[in-house]
Input
Amino acid sequence: MKTTHLLFALMLILTVVACKNDGADPIDDAPKRAMKENNGLIGKWKIVEYLSDPGNGSGTYREVKDDVAHTIEFRENGEFVETKGQGQSSVPLFNAYKVLDDKRIELIPIDRSQPSHTWYYSELSASKVTLGYGCIEACSGKYIAVE
Output
């Protein structure tokens, strides 16, 4: 009887260890998925999750498929480059940025007669960052560092 319980416990442990976690959060795997490490905000970032909220706080992050994912790049000289994914407008709106403080970035439009736009950043590391786009309702994207 003891041997049966021991074998059952061992099989249970092996089963649990062998199971793959299909519900893993892509941003939690950022250090594994990131192709490089950036220096602060400077560098190229690819969106892997986005948050869309109807305005009542019920929004959740959803994975962005590779074929529609966009990349953004903050260059050392203040240039901002956005490469949009399929199905998104290919017209860039911003071409420069300025870091305002440790939580905010000002995006400067190509058409200088238009107002600038403020994004918010958090959870910044060499391999990931979360950017809030300044929407009235909650909206943001989680990004990983890429080449």
